[in-house]
Amino acid sequence: MPDRQEKFWFHAKRHGYGWGLPARWQGWIVMLVYIGLVIMAALFLPGYASLAVMLVLTAMLVIVVVFTGEKPAKWRWGRD
Predict the structure, then answer these.
(1) pTM here?
(2) From CA 71, how far away is CA 44, in angstroms rounded?
(3) Comparing C-alpha atoms, which of 11, 61, 12, 19 is closest to residue 36?
(4) Distance between CA 37 and CA 18 in Å, rounded?
């Protein structure tokens, strides 16, 4: 039976708050799509429209990471 930790898309950070780099291919796809859409918004949309789209995309990324990340977000000092 696979370990539960293998199912997480994003590792929890060892130091600090939140999550770090993706742990599985699904997480990498999410990050690449996010980066691609942010770059496209910056290149093809004017000023405040690109900022609004980037804020929405970032909120969507945070929601995905909250549901697929390793642990709930909290401050970590590296001792666990």
Answers:
(1) 0.82
(2) 36
(3) 61
(4) 22
Q: Which amino acid is at 63?
A: I
- 33, two tokens: 């799509």
Q: Which residue has the higher pLDDT, 58 or 75?
A: 58
CA dihedral 52, 72, 69, 34 (to 10 degrees): 10
Q: What is the pLDDT of residues 22-34, one digit of tens each?
A: 999 999 999 999 9
In eight-state DSSP terms, residue 13 is: P
Tokens read off for 72: 């709930």
Residues facing residue 10 across a β-bridge: 22, 69
Interior CA angle at 53 toward 47 and 58, to 5°?
A: 125
d(CA 71, CA 18): 9
- Chain center to CA of 70: 12
